[in-house]
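Example record

One chain of 201 residues, shown exactly as stored in the release files.
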Amino acid sequence: MIVLSKIKKVKEISDKKELKELNETSLAKPLERPYVIDARVYKLKSRFVKHSVFVTIGYIKDGNKVRPFEIFLNSKDLTKAAEFVILTRLLSAIFRRTEDPTFILEELRSVYDPNGTGYFKNGKYIASFYGELAEILEEFFTEMGMLEKEKKEENKILDFNIKEDINDKFQICPKCGMKTLKVEEGCYTCINPECGYTKCN
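Predicted structure tokens for this chain:
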């Protein structure tokens, strides 16, 4: 019994040591927050929320580089307050632990609004509020020299300049980007033969 107890204790110490070593190698130590940091504030008007959302991105200079340090979302719409707190805490934690947080753009853009009501904005299909936030973050990353500025080509096929109307027969399909999404009895079906997107609630 004593031998088993000692073996168990040794194993626990070994497991703790391995976990500590794993944490030290896989996670970077978070940056310490300076007393004062610079920030940029963006005003986001979104179709996914009732009121404008003010996006504040705090950043620090690390040698010749600029690193985002924290992000805050503020709006009159208090129904989203808890969601905004969780989102900003997670994004801020990523900013403080990695030198290149640009990977989050793809992650945010891959989130689709559960109502399936995306739309085009400046020639890009926005699938959800998170996609709009990704656009602001991309703008910030570009301004700070973290991303290269892309040459924007006019895409007349995708940018329909359609005035969205809830009475319209078709919506924009999140897969092919065409206004060919038919809604019937809670099911979304794209009538574009090259697409075939379908989703039912």
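Notes: The two ends are 58 Å apart (CA to CA).
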